[in-house]
Specification:
The protein is an alpha/beta fold and 410 residues long. The protein contains 17 helices and twelve strands. Helices cover 40% and strands 14% of the residues. The strands form three sheets. It has a seven-stranded mixed beta sheet with strand order 6-5-4-1-2-3-12, with helices on both faces. The protein is elongated, with a radius of gyration of 26 Å.
């Protein structure tokens, strides 16, 4: 963790990936992030993957370094406490992160009535308030018809929740931008971040919307081919599968050199009247002819000979491996990566390495990472410090089932 956001307080009332990942980013840069959940856990508290005992590794991963308070959000008094937490006073407070509906007890109107300068970042499904998740907005935008094998007849989903992850990062950016604006103007903000708009804007930014309008049709499936440049998977002499990519002229020239294809490539350029070094689009257009040259050249050598030659020549490549292989054997990604620290005090009781911030702030000590809290671990602390409640009132709330601490055995 870094401490560059030290002193900033964010209250999080969110579940699943986008909202909690936003809070995680802020917490790992030093903000105090207080997450409230229903007593017994919200809809993501038992979400897979889970440990053998049923503890959610997903929840542990997304809530590292946060504080947890458990409330009875079905009760008027529990909802009142959630509003009080979100709008608690302080120059570095009044930042609320949620994926609760626009209308309801956590609406911007309800929040701003209590604190005029509240900043609320709200993750949504569709902009009109209809529910959606990563898979459904992906389906609506046509992305599953661009992925998968060339011969696939229907949509092919993928496992990475790209829009949820982008939504969390975008929400963190928008929240901090609004906080800076508040310092200059004193104004709060109602920020709405629909997953549907994230997918639509992203496809617009990278030219995909313009592409289908200009061509009048959808982009065909490419299988493992890289769209718009040279790239595909190839198999080495020792049956290792590698991804080779040549987007820049240097990447292309390095690949040609390592595979000793200079004369064959030159002959093909002469036949077609093109220059592969000058234009990545030309490499893509004639990729099948180039694949026919590259595949046997890669297949003629083992990976332990190709790898150092690729690296020396500036070739962009990667070996295909499973996540288990990467986690247990890849020093660059996991085993020796300084963004990871091994923690033994996860709520699940397991010991395993976890990631800190992906960004490295040069010259700053990363500091120790903190595990996810036990559900309700900080209930009493938060009620006392943020809301100024005394021990007698906190005890009454516990007795009435309005709040809860960590369950026995947690």
């Amino acid at each position: 963790m870094y401490d560059i956001l030290s002193g900033l307080r964010v209250v999080e009332g969110a579940a699943f990936i986008a909202g909690p990942s936003c809070g995680l980013h802020l917490a790992q840069l030093g903000a105090e992030v207080i997450r409230f959940d229903n007593i017994g856990g919200g809809p993501d508290f038992r979400r897979w993957p889970v440990s053998e005992k049923g503890d959610s590794l997903y929840w542990e991963g997304l809530n590292k370094g946060k504080k947890s308070i458990a409330l009875n959000l079905s009760s008027p008094e529990g909802r009142e406490l959630s509003l009080a937490l979100a709008t608690a006073p302080g120059d570095n407070a009044g930042l609320f992160l949620t994926n609760y509906p626009v209308e309801g007890f956590l609406s911007f109107e309800a929040l701003s009535t209590r604190r005029r300068d509240i900043i609320c970042a709200r993750i949504m499904g569709w902009a009109d308030g209809a529910p959606a998740v990563d898979y459904t907005v992906n389906a609506a935008a046509g992305v599953p018809f661009m992925t998968g094998p060339v011969e696939a007849a229907g949509p092919v989903n993928h496992v990475l929740p790209a829009w949820d992850l982008l939504g969390g990062a975008y929400a963190a950016f928008a929240l901090l931008a609004a906080e800076r604006s508040r310092r200059l103007t004193g104004r709060g903000r109602d920020i709405r971040i629909p997953l549907s708009d994230l997918v639509a804007s992203s496809l617009s930014h990278i030219g995909s919307v313009a592409e289908v309008l200009a061509t009048g049709t959808d982009r065909p499936r490419m299988g493992n081919d890289l769209f718009g440049a040279f790239g595909r998977d190839f198999i080495t002499a020792d049956r290792e599968r590698v991804m080779l990519v040549a987007i820049t002229p240097r990447q292309w020239s390095g690949l040609v050199k390592v595979l000793s294809l200079k004369e064959k490539v030159a002959a093909l350029e002469g036949e077609l009247g093109v220059s592969f070094a000058a234009d990545e689009g030309v490499r893509f257009r004639h990729r099948e002819r180039l694949f026919a040259l590259v595949a046997p050249a890669v297949a003629a050598q083992p990976l332990d000979r190709l790898a150092p030659a690729f690296d020396a020549a500036g070739v962009t490549w990667g070996k295909y491996q499973t996540l288990h292989e990467a986690v247990t054997g890849d020093d660059r990604l996991f085993k020796a990566n300084p963004i990871f620290q091994t923690l033994s005090d996860h709520p699940s009781g397991l010991t395993y390495p976890v990631s800190g911030p992906a960004a490295t702030l040069a010259g700053l000590d990363r500091g120790a990472l903190l595990p996810a809290p036990r559900l309700g671990q900080h209930t009493d602390e938060v009620l006392a410090t943020l809301l100024g409640l005394g021990s007698r009132e906190i005890g009454r709330l516990h007795d009435a089932g309005i709040v809860a601490g960590p369950a026995q055995g947690d």
